[in-house]
Give the backbone structure.
Amino acid sequence: MVALTTSITNSHTSINELYVFGDSLSDIGNVFNATEGFHPSSPPYFQGRFSNGLVWVEYLASGLALTPKQNTNFAYGGATTGSGNLNGIPDLLTQVDSFIKVYQQVDKNALYILWAGANDYLHGMSNPSLSINNISQAIQSLAKAGAKKILVANLPDLGNIPATCNSPYSSILSSATIAQIWA
């Protein structure tokens, strides 16, 4: 990630906006706003994020000298890559489709970020090929709409996150993560 951030930062003049799609790793308060401040609870979470501080896309936007108005975030904590609206949470494909319906013309100088898939594995809703197909479909939809700069982040090691590191499924989730990275 450091090398990627460096290369993006060096060309920041050509990136004038961020559009973010995904799950809790990128959610800057969409679930919090949708639940009228009920979830995630603050504290221990920070101002509606599923973290103890800002999430990575906020640091990226800052490094690119973008204002909050130049950072449009569709990510929702709990989102899957594509199983419909689970508990009212739009999945990745729904987020991208909603974006394309609202923004008829996409900004070719914007960076479109996709980071999803963890919840597919954590909730047992998908097999690796279905998650990858959903992410590929989201990329294709953005590209067809005219997006030129698309960043797709790899999953974190799901066997080493706080919710799973001491579970009997830890090694299976770690293996699944590695399999998706190399798929």
About this structure: The chain has seven helices and four strands. Residues 1-7 have pLDDT under 50 and may be disordered.
